Amino acid sequence: MSDNAQISYDYRVRFSKHGAIRYIGHLDVMRYFQKVLRRAEVDIAYTKGYSPHQITTFAQPLGVGVESDGEYMDLKLNSYISCSELKQLINEYSVPEIQAISVKKLPEKSGNAMASVAAAEYYIGFKEGRTPSCLLENDINSLIQKFLEQESIILVKEGKAGLREVDIKERIFEFSYDKSEECFHAVVDASSGYNIKPQALIELFLNYHNDKMAENSLMIYRADTYTRDDEGKLVSMGDIGLDE
Amino acid sequence: MKNFWNTNLALSDDILMKIEKPERYIGHEVNAVYKDPNDVRVRFVMCFPDVYEIGMSHLGIQILYDMFNTFEDVWCERVYAPWVDLDAIMREKNIPLFALESQQPIKNMDFLGITIQYEMCYTNILQVLDLSRIPLLSKDRGEDCPIVIGGGPCTYNPEPIADFFDMFYIGEGETKYRELMNLYEECKDKKLGRKEFLRRAAKIPGMYVPSMYEVAYNEDGTIKSFTPKEEGIPATILKEVVKDLSDTYYPMKPVVPYIKCTQDRIVLEIMRGCIRGCRFCQAGELYRPVRERDVEVLKKYALEMMKNTGHEEISLSSLSSSDYSKLPELLDFLIEECSKRHVNITLPSLRIDAFSLDVMSKVQDVKKTSLTFAPEAGTQRLRNVINKGLTFDDIIGGSTEAFKGGWNKVKLYFMLGHPFETEEDIRGIAELSNEIAATFFDVVPKEKRVNGKIQITVSTSFFVPKPFTAFQWAPQCTKDEFISKAYFCRGAITEQLNQKSIKYNWHDADLSVLEGVLARGDRKIAPVILDVYKQGSFFESWTEYYKHERWLEAFERNNVDPDFYTTRLRPDDEIFPWDFLSCGVNKSFLLNEWHKAKREEITPNCSQKCSGCGGAQFGIGICFAR
Questions:
Q1: Packing angle of the helix pair B548-557, B526-534 (nearest 10 deg)
Q2: What is the pLDDT of residues B332-368, one digit of tens each?
Q3: Which of A96, A54, A111 has the alpha carbon at shortest distance from A237?
Q4: Shared domain check, A142 and A93
Q5: Is the confidence metric ipTM above 0.90 for this complex?
Q6: Using one digit for the tens of pLDDT, what is the confidence trace for B133-155?
Q7: What ranges do the domains of chain B cover?
Q8: Is B480's pLDDT higher than 90?
Q9: Cβ of A216 and B306 within 8 Å?
Q10: Do A97 and A130 lie in a common domain?
Q11: Terminal C-alpha separation, chain B
């Protein structure tokens, strides 16, 4: 193929997941993109060896049933293509429910999509008729205030080595209630090992106020996924790289 | 948030979040066809009565889905059998079964087409009808019901399920559906009603409308006569065949599922029919005459389908791919084009020879793949009886070449319970397997043996006689006979010198007995199937959901003796329940084959010599190649 096979081009694709497609699991979304890239005839790089596979990395997996405008996939290509062209190609060969929102060309040394995830931003609402009573009777933002004023907020995480207690107080970067939209807004840790699921946050919050929620009562939307810049500030993963 | 949260799905978020693999029920796949219901005149739903991952892997439905949707006035959608978890919820919450694309109830459609690929899905057909709220019996259906039409290999004996269908399409679907749609539209415009539509449909070639025929039985339970109830309805129905496979419908944009399906790849159908004429094989008779698809057309299809699906694998489909005349040219082309695109080629089971070994070593990791032989019988004598043209020398010669090339896994497929089988024949299975192992040790020097071993896997299934084969007259073994044959085979294998290299598997005997009843059954079987379904059975092709005792009880309750259909030797002149159908191969030819089997005489294959089976009446294919 190419004489200088070692040269590669890294791109980051921010994509959405909406409607019926929110029931497609993470592994199937990964398989789905392999097929999109093949249909679009994108010059993607493959691993070496007997069964080569496309070199792609996905950021924090999205739960089944969650909608999002903040999913990320990093790609390694063998040849240059402009970001706008790549975005257009992906969207042409993808279903309307999964669309590239932006494409950036990554600088040579930027961590891969999975490893650099720091936080995720969610909007969380209750389905019709499933709002817990404590939220109906009180000012929700002052309930949140009290919840966050605890000395520690202990989340029990299930890991490979069994159950483990994590204090997430410093890992909740933003937590408030938007009255007009009737939903919570939260930015929480999503780094590997410390990922806080939005359901878990709401559950802890309700437990603290001696309330609980019925099964499957949440509507969850991931607005974006964040990484940290050199100064340690949270920035959208989609802001890394250049549109060139 | 609420603005975008709602979907137009038939199932609520609560249900979709609770069930296994919700992707089975949401549609929206790449290449799924969406039309505006107001723009079409006929709504057709195509059903494969098994779970989504199985149904989506079926080429026939993909072909017909594509064909129907090229008709501007028709919208064809898909439906599969809801898995047991969703089934229970739909019954509890009274949710009607819906089509994947529109998510609208099946009951409101014009046609429900069901492909019937194996007998063990019969109770799933009833499940689909039931969940759709369509009365299970054709005679109970009113003007508010879709026309339920069946197709596929099992319709070559439709009688056990005839009560559940309004009509059957006998043969290849590409040819007569346009005419049927025209007739339907005409009847709909004139408000003639379903009865009149069915009466008229019965006159279209290939269409079988069970309610238009009368069956009379002899005292012993065999069929006395099978006659049309009205004048103008044909007494014999000849199957439909595609005349030119290179100039017909092919799904260039097959639906690409999100979840991993059984057949998660591009399927390229290279030909139909088989020249071989193995006497146990139903497909070998049903799809005659052999017709090839033009190699240039196939190349074009392959490229287009890779582009349209993005699949990472392509496979060839036919009954006997080694017999495709342009196979080397096609494979060379595919190997080159696929490697450019990082697409894998999965080979169908090819006849093992120098050519196929060369191709296999190019496209697969030799160490990981196994060599497959299907001798079907252990001795040459019995292979002559079944007319399987694979010899001892073919197998040992092929193995020798393969072992030299680095292969060290062999799979062997046999059947137990062929007509005229003796203990010697069963012992032959063990001896042949042993001989293959010995060949390995002869051919491969010790230092070159991976792990020092050869792995031979011997699998036996039990033979079930099928309609339209030479063995349609044959008695099937009883369950006990089947099991003692399997034990004998196992015993014979353990007596072999190389027994440690041989692993032996055999199939379930209960299922084979039941398959035998359904395969050669008549209309008296329908109440039994209905009974078993009402006891709660479906998904019976999944062993965990197969309850044999329910069948035994149902046979008893409905006064049906299963042995009448299985173990009985049928006299040469018996009228079979399926005799009113014709697959083109004459009954007299099959009877002669049955007699030749008894005499251990072989019949040459279609490329060697025409044996005058009757397939030539279609005027096409290999019958006219020379």
A1: 130
A2: 999 999 999 999 999 887 888 889 999 988 888 777 7
A3: A111
A4: no
A5: yes
A6: 999 999 999 999 999 999 999 99
A7: 7-238, 265-348+584-626
A8: yes
A9: no
A10: no
A11: 70
Evaluate whether residue A134 is within a structural domain.
yes
Place of tokens 């040269």: A7
Going by C-alpha positions, the residue among B270, B345, B269, B361 that lies closest to residue B313 is: B345
Is B289 a residue whose pLDDT tops 50? yes
d(CA B547, CA B410): 34
- With an 8 Å Cβ cutoff, the interface of chain A facing chain B consists of 18-21, 23-25, 28, 31-32, 34-39, 41, 46, 50, 52, 54, 64-65, 67, 93, 95, 97, 123, 125, 127-128, 181-183, 215-216, 219, 221
Tokens of residue B244, six digits: 């030119």
The residues with which B416 forms a beta bridge, in sequence order, are B462
Note whether A38 contacts B7, CB cutoff 8 Å: no
Same domain flag for A100 and A128: no
Structural domain for A109, as ranges: 9-115
CA-nearest residue to B366 within chain A is A50
Which residues in B lie closer than 8 A to residue A219 (C-beta atoms)?
Answer: 1-2, 5
| Fold category of B265-348+584-626 in CATH | Transcription Regulator spoIIAA (3.30.750)
Interchain CB distance below 8 Å, B342 and A52: yes
What's the one-letter identity of residue B419?
A: P
| A130 and A231 belong to one structural domain | yes
Fold classified for B7-238: Rossmann fold (3.40.50)
Which pLDDT score, from 0 to 100, does residue B327 have? 95
Residue type, B133: R
Q: What does the alpha-carbon distance between residue B110 and residue B384 come to, in Å, rounded to a whole number?
A: 49
A131 and A160 assigned to the same domain: yes
Which of B4, B8, B17 comes nearest A65 by C-beta? B17
A123 and A105 belong to one structural domain: no
B32: left (phi over 0), alpha (psi -120 to 50) or beta: beta
Cβ count near A162 (within 10 Å): 7
Q: Which residue of A has its CA nearest to B8?
A: A20
Domain edge (last residue) among A49, A80, A115: A115
Residue B371, pLDDT above cutoff 50? yes
* Distance (Å, whole) CA A190 – CA A172: 10
Which residues does chain A have within 8 Å of residue B342's beta carbon, measured at their own beta carbons? 38, 46, 52, 54
**A123: chain B residues, CB-CB within 8 Å:** 1
Contact assignment for A125 to B1 by CB distance below 8 Å: yes
A238 C-beta neighbours (distance < 10 Å), count: 21
Domain-terminating residue out of A85, A115, A145: A115
- H or E segment and range at residue B375: strand B371-376
Same domain, A226 and A148: yes
Q: Which of A20, A54, A125 sits opposite B26 (nearest CB)?
A: A20
Give yes or no: residues A168 and A75 share one domain: no
Cβ–Cβ gap A41/B22 under 8 Å: no
Residues of B contacting chain A (CB within 8 angstroms): 1-2, 4-5, 7-9, 13-14, 16-18, 22-23, 26-28, 30, 256, 258-260, 306-312, 341-343, 365
Option in B28, B307, B312 nearest A21 (CB): B28
Inter-CA distances, B76 with B27, B79, B106, B144, Å: 13, 10, 12, 19
Q: Domain count for chain A, please give it.
A: 2
